[in-house]
């Protein structure tokens, strides 16, 4: 008999464990059946954990004894395939890395210590430096709202898993928008925390420097908060995690700067409409919302932005000679371009980042939150790296990604929230950007928006006459 446990969020799932309406073994059995039915369509997972049944039984025993490890005990969580999970291969979307991880990296270890069920590894483009999700090794990942389209990237596998009910929660990374844009493309909540808020350690080389942080995905704010609280916290191995300021978590009467456009850069008209409607909803909640341009010059960082990844790949190639024979041609070309960049150019770019961080610090003396779209374009065909035009204007590979990378460079938190749907029925996302250490405030603000509705709804792919997809 089908129970539809897959429709439950983390909080509801653990409540069901507590009162005996569900147990982790049955949940995992149902989940693996759903994955078998839908993953061939979506390609969200590239591997499942071999010890899934054992993880479920261990959680079941803890619940039966009344001793769960945390509110996430027995909750299925998907892990992006650029994060180490002990006993599983970390492929990073290619062939350069192919060894079985001997230990969990720190955020994954925190999930395991909390009793979360680590379902498997989700797809990512090679080296996680693309805004869509596909690679030569594992293929193309598709959007549950329309499998012909991309879920975005580089955390596309993680968002596809959560949006299709193939995981309750997921984690990924965000080095330039790889949490917020995919969350926006799939109707999810996606948090990019401040640099250091979720300590890192024991993982792959961070080719995007400290711009890359752990990102979290959920279908509602309460679940996002549960996941964030398990992962957040300092660690002596990550000094940046020990120096964040305390920001009030109050979400009353906030000063919000609404920035629909960045200069003359194009943005889809339906995204702008949804953005302004969300700004009106924030005003309706009693916040002081003003629309205007971002009063910071992003050009100095933007001019060099793509080169950071090139330099990171060049350094990785020097460290791993086998990369020359195993990596895709595009990434080897990127590494070659990075190796050719002069050291003064990198120095000047780092100085531009420092100036941006100073300007952002000062900006948040005037504003509490900045509201922006998550992306300038709605999802495009899944096999394509990027949309070629936006609002009728030709754009390059990063034209859709203009709203996110600068937030990574600044180090500030950004939270993707659902902002409505376009005429095709696809979700539209916007992001709330806060002061350093302001994650609690952003989550509370997103929760207030969520309570105004309409809330999460399932893609048509996941439903049939109002019921879950039939699986054996």
Your description of this structure?
With 472 residues, the chain is α+β, with helices and mostly antiparallel strands. It has a single domain (5-304, 341-468), classed as Amidase signature (AS) enzymes (Alpha-Beta Complex), CATH 3.90.1300. Helices cover 35% and strands 15% of the residues. The protein is built from 15 helices and 17 strands. The strands form four sheets. Strands 1-3-2-6-8-7-14-15-11-9-10 form an eleven-stranded mixed β-sheet, with helices on both faces. It has a two-stranded antiparallel ribbon with strand order 4-5. A two-stranded antiparallel ribbon has the order 12-13. Helix 8 links the parallel strand 9 and strand 10. Helix 2 (24-42) runs antiparallel to helix 3, helix 7 runs antiparallel to helix 15 and helix 10 packs across helix 12. It is globular. The mean pLDDT is 96.
Keywords:
eleven-stranded mixed beta sheet, single chain, Amidase signature (AS) enzymes, 15% strand, 472 residues, 17 strands, alpha+beta, 15 helices, two-stranded antiparallel sheet
